[in-house]
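User: Modeling request: complex.
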Amino acid sequence: MTTSATPRERLLDAAGELFYRDGVNIGVDALCKAAGVSKKSMYQLFRSKDELIAESLASRGPSYQALLHPGPEDDRTARDRILAVFERQDQMVAEGNFLGCPYVSTAIELKNPEHPGSVVARHFKQQLTDFFHRELRKAGAEDPATLAIQLTIIFDGASARAVVRAQNLGGIGVVTAAALLDAAGVRSGELVG
Amino acid sequence: MTTSATPRERLLDAAGELFYRDGVNIGVDALCKAAGVSKKSMYQLFRSKDELIAESLASRGPSYQALLHPGPEDDRTARDRILAVFERQDQMVAEGNFLGCPYVSTAIELKNPEHPGSVVARHFKQQLTDFFHRELRKAGAEDPATLAIQLTIIFDGASARAVVRAQNLGGIGVVTAAALLDAAGVRSGELVG
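Assistant: Request completed. Predicted assembly structure:
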C-alpha cells in the first residue's frame, strides 16, 4: 500500500486484508486504524460496514482470479488449463497463510445469502465455474455444465481440507480433478477449440 | 432443551446452536442469556469461551454423525453406504437453515488451527474420512486412503456450494461421489466385507 493511495483505496486494501485474516466480524475501529482513515471519513466513503465488506471483496477479485486462472496467452489444452487452477491452489496453500477461499469464507461467516458480501462471493465463485465451463466446451466434454460445477466442488472441498487440516494439499485437488476429467473422457490430447 | 437440564447442558446446547447459527464471534452475554445461566456460572463451568466453543462442538458431534453416517444395521453395499452420506447431506440442505458443515465453518471462522475448537473440528472431519476408508476397504478399493480423502473433499465442496449459492444441491454431491467411485471401480455389485 503506497502512501499516495486515496483514503478509499487504503480502506479497501486494509478491509480486504483484515476481513480475510481476522474474519468479517472485525471491528470498524481496527479497520480504520489499519487504513489510517477516520471513522467519519469511512462512513462518508461507504454507507456501511456491510458495503465495505462487499466492495473490498469485489476489489480483490480480479487479482485473485489472475493468480488462479491461466491467461489467454497460455495455449495449453483445455484440460491442462483446468488442472492449472488446481496446481495454483496447491501452490497457494503451500505458500502459507492460507485461510480458505475468500468467497466461501465470507459467505460462511456472513450466514446471510442476501448480504451484499454474499452476493459478491456468489458472483466470483460463479466465475470460476464459468471458466471451467468454457474450457470444457472447448474440450468437447459431453456435459460441460455439470462437470464445471463438479470441478468447483472439488476446488472448494480442497480449500476446506487445507483449512481444517492446516497442511499442504500435496496435489490431492489436482489428482481428484484429473480423475473426474478422465472419467468424463476429457484427455490431454484433445484439441483446443 | 428441557428445564431439568443442568446449567452445563444448557450452555452446551445454547452454544452449539448459536455458534452454528451466528458464528463463533457471538458474545458470551448472548450465550448466557440463551442458556439462562449467569456469566459467573459459565466461567465456573468452562475455563474460557474457547473451551466452550470446543466442548459444544464436540458434544454435538455424535448426533450429527448419526444423521449422516448409515448405522451398522444398514446392510447395503459399501458403495451404497458411502453414497447414503451424500444423500443425507442433500436432504439436510433441502430441509433449510443449512449454514455449512459445522466443523469446516468453525475452522474457517477461528482461523487458528491450534484453537481447541479447530482441533475438535479436525477430529470429527477425520471421522468422516475414516468412515469412507472403512467402507472402501470392504469394497476392495485399490487405494482406499486416497479415495476416502477425495470423497471428503467432495462432501465439503458440496457443503460450500450449498452455502455460497443458498440453494439445494439437487443431487450434485451424490452424482460426483458416484462418478469417483465408478472411476475407481467401486461398484454396487461388490460384496460387503
